[in-house]
Amino acid sequence: MAVIHVGQNTFENEVLNSPVPVLVDFWAPWCMPCKMLEPIFEEVAKEYQGKVKFVKINTDDNIEIAQRYYISGIPTLLLFKNGKVVNNIVGFISKKELIKFLEDNI
């Protein structure tokens, strides 16, 4: 499964109602650490296909969602299970750190 870009209209269905855990990347086009994280996020998404859904939310276009989850710095990764946030990471992380985060939390 490829990385899915969601917004206000698709957030509930893709994230909150997902039968599998969902890792959401809150990002913005002007954010350099977000750009650095993007290829790592996409690579890990391929490795966890079927186990975790990988979603990106542009905070510039989806302010309401970012505010609902108190996103104050980006990139921020939120891991959802059964519609609830179970853990988060703020800032750039390596592929190894991202995999450890997933293994510790899914």
H-E string: EHEHEHEEH
- Shape summary: globular
Question: What strand order characterises the main sheet?
Answer: 1-3-2-4-5
From the 3D structure, determine the CATH topology: Glutaredoxin
Q: Total number of β-strand segments?
A: 5
Strand fraction = 25-35%
Largest sheet: 5 strands, mixed
CATH superfamily: Glutaredoxin
Low-confidence stretches: none
Helix content: 25-40%
Kindly, what is the distance between the CA atoms of the first and last residues, rounded to a whole number of angstroms?
A: 17 Å
Count, helices: 4
Report the average pLDDT across residues. Answer: 97
What is the domain tally?
1
- Gyration radius, in Å: 12 Å
CATH architecture group name: 3-Layer(aba) Sandwich
Can you tell me the CATH class? Alpha Beta
